């Protein structure tokens, strides 16, 4: 185990030198990271394939390409994001100028997740670097090969006083959380998120928590069913369902339920998840395989349901005749199991969803603008899409984050820069005049003028 306290202390010293506050320094580090990623793409592909058979195609499209996008966007915009911004000065403070200065928070801790190990570790790091922070990165230990690959890439090429990967499991994470950081960014489960939040509270450290929850997909009777099924099946079974914003369950209008199920089964068959080589990933470990198998009620299986514990493969599975009381509806599934609930009344199903913790995502498939607006207005969730799934994460202008149990704060694009910055408000006052109204002695005449000026 690294001497974690020393790592943090050296990063704090480096941050206090003000080196990271120079825009040229930040851009140089981002360019360096991009070059290293490109030079080591093959090694990154190989590592993640060893962990859970994620193909080159999926690794590039769902992880590496998003990192390239984030780096290019940060390099292009970091100067603009970092500039002081003039704001209006109120009457009571005239004559003066008012402005806001973004400044880096300091030494940041980023705890990554296992399901998209490169993207969910390095995307926050890119935002932290762009904002001028130092970074201690703790990748998930479950995909050990990707953790090793990131540690090798970063620790052999960056100054550890600026950017350092600390590998390990619970003991190392606990040791890190016992240190004082200026920012903690965590991606993972709600349970661990609460532990991180409690640890951060001891030092009043600001946090961003990217958690999860049971994200619903609502299908109304007048949707475009063909495109609905295609987009929903893709979003659900991408990464074998191990996606925090995957549709966790479907609520579909009773009048089209049977048709939906038939088309969903055909879409799964046409996608050839288990036929084409490298078209489907493994479940991350044996514990999650057993957990997911326990959720598959054989009497409720419409299609799929088979599994191989040795290869850690679970077929894309659809469960039907499900209610909110079934076991599969109690916690986030995080795997290739899709429960289908039918409904008659949209208002009633919205009320049912609202009874539960706020999800990270919500999707509505409909041609009815009134139904669409009702879902968007009445259900609180982190982010989502109309007539699509998952793809909102690809638009960095939207920001990405949860609400309530699904998380705190947001990132991507400028939202990520903001997550690792403090916005310092400055009043720059002129000295050539100084009204006497606020000074002692207080008089009725002064109070009268103050009421006239500022109400």
Automatic annotation (TrEMBL):
Record keywords, A-Z: NAD, Oxidoreductase
UniProt-listed SUPFAM superfamilies: ALDH-like
Sections of the chain in a coiled coil: none
Record organism: Arenibacter certesii
Transmembrane segments: none
GO MF term list: aldehyde dehydrogenase (NAD+) activity
Family as reported in the entry's similarity comment: Belongs to the aldehyde dehydrogenase family.
Domain Aldehyde dehydrogenase: 4-424
CDD domains, per the entry: ALDH_YwdH-P39616 (cd07136)
Catalytic residues (positions): 210, 244
GO CC term, one of those recorded: cytoplasm
GO aspect biological process, one term: aldehyde metabolic process
Identification of the protein by name: Aldehyde dehydrogenase
């Amino acid at each position: 185990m690294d001497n974690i306290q020393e790592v943090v202390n050296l990063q704090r010293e480096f941050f206090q030198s003000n080196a990271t506050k120079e825009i040229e320094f930040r851009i140089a580090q981002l360019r360096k990271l991009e070059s290293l990623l490109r030079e080591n793409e093959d090694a990154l592909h190989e590592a993640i394939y060893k962990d859970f058979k994620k193909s080159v195609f999926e690794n590039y499209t769902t992880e590496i390409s998003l990192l390239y996008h984030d780096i290019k966007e940060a390099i292009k915009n970091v100067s603009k994001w970092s500039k002081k911004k003039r704001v209006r000065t109120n009457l009571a403070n005239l004559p003066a100028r008012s402005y806001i200065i973004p400044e880096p928070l300091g030494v940041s801790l980023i705890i990554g997740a296992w399901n998209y190990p490169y993207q969910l570790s390095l995307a926050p790091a890119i935002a932290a670097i762009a904002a001028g922070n130092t970074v201690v990165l703790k990748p998930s230990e479950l995909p050990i090969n990707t953790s090793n690959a990131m540690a090798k890439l970063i620790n052999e090429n960056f100054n550890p006083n600026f950017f350092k990967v600390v590998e390990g499991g619970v003991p190392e994470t606990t040791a890190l959380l016992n240190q004082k950081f200026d920012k903690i960014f965590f991606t993972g489960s709600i349970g661990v998120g609460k532990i991180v939040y409690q640890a951060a509270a001891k030092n009043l450290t600001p946090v961003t928590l990217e958690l999860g929850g049971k994200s619903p997909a609502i299908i109304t009777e007048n949707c475009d069913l063909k495109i609905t099924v295609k987009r929903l099946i893709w979003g659900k079974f991408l990464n074998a369902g191990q996606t925090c914003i995957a549709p966790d369950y479907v609520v579909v209008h009773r009048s089209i339920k049977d048709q939906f199920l038939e088309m969903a089964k055909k879409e799964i068959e046409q996608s050839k998840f288990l036929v084409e080589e490298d078209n489907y990933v493994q479940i991350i470990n044996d514990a999650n395989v057993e957990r997911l198998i326990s959720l598959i009620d054989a009497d409720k299986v419409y299609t799929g349901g088979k599994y191989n514990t040795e290869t850690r493969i679970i077929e894309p599975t659809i469960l039907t005749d499900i209610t909110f009381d079934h076991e599969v509806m109690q916690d986030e599934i995080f795997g290739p199991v899709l429960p289908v609930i039918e409904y008659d009344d949209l208002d009633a199903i919205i009320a049912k969803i609202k009874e539960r913790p706020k999800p990270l995502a919500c999707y509505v498939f409909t041609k009815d603008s009134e139904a669409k607006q009702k879902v968007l207005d009445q259900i609180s969730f982190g982010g989502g899409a109309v007539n699509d799934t998952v793809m909102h994460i690809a638009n960095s202008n939207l920001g990405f984050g949860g609400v309530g149990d699904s998380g705190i704060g947001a990132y991507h694009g400028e939202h990520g820069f903001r997550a690792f910055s403090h916005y310092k408000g400055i009043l720059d006052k002129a000295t050539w005049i100084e009204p006497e109204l606020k000074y002692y002695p207080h008089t009725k005449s002064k109070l009268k003028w103050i009421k006239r000026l500022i109400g």
